Amino acid sequence: MRAERAFSLLELVIVIVVISLLLVVAIDRLLALRFEAERVTVQSVIAAMRSALYIEFAGAAAGGQLARLDAAGGSNPMLRLAEKPDGYAGEFFGADPALFEPGTWYFDTRERAIVYIVRFPERFETPLAGPPRARLRVEPDYDDLDRNGRFDPGRDPVRGLKLVPLEPFLWKVPGGQQK
C-alpha cells in the first residue's frame, strides 16, 4: 500500500503567512509607484506646456512679432498643446476646485491660472486650503527697463514666456528627497 501524504495544518498556516507577507510588500511597492507615476505625469505635462511656450516665443521672434506676446501673460497654456492631457476639463470662471475629480486639469479664467487637482495627496504639499492642487500661470519673461517691478507692455522687451507656480508646491519622494 502507498502512504498518502497531505498538507498539515502547520504547513498550510506557514504558506498563508508567507503569501500574506509577499502581498503586503507588493502592495506597498505599488502604492509608491502610484504616487511616483502621478508626479512624473504632472511634471511631464508642465514640461510640455513650457516647451509650447518656448516654441511660441521662438516663432514670434523669428517672425518679428514679439509685440503679440505682450498679452500672453495669464493665457491658457493648454491651448498651445497639440494634444491635451487626459483629465483636461477645459476653461471655467472661478470654479470651486472641490467640484473637480482628483487628477483633473482645468484653466481658471478668473485667476488666469492652470490648475491640477492632485489625485494622491499623501505625498504632496501646498499651502492652499481645500483640495490639494498646483496652480501655475503664464507670465512674460522680460527686461524691467524702468525697474518698477512689473511688466509694462510696449515698454519692457519680452525675452520669453514662462510658466510659474502661484504658490509653492512640493512632491515628497521616498528617501527624504523632495521635488
Record the SSE blueprint.
Layout: H1 9-62, E1 88-92, E2 105-108, E3 113-117, E4 124-125, E5 133-142, E6 158-165, E7 170-171
Parallel strand pairs: 1-2
Antiparallel strand pairs: 2-3, 3-5, 4-7, 5-6
Structural write-up:
The radius of gyration is 25 Å and the shape is elongated. The longest helix is centred in the first third of the chain and has 54 residues, at 9-62. 30% of the residues lie in helices and 20% in strands. The protein contains one helix and seven strands. Strand 2 (105-108) and strand 3 (113-117) form a beta hairpin. The protein has one domain (9-171). The chain is an alpha+beta fold. The strands form two sheets. It has a five-stranded mixed beta sheet, with helices on one face. A two-stranded antiparallel sheet has the order 4-7.
Q: Helix tally?
A: 1
Main-sheet strand order equals 1-2-3-5-6
* Terminal CA distance: 69 Å
The biggest beta sheet is recorded as:
5 strands, mixed
SSE sequence, one letter per element: HEEEEEEE
Question: Roughly what percent helix?
Answer: 25-40%
Radius of gyration (Å): 25 Å
In short:
The chain has 179 residues and is an alpha+beta fold.
Summary keywords:
179 residues; alpha+beta; five-stranded mixed β-sheet; 1 helix; 30% helix
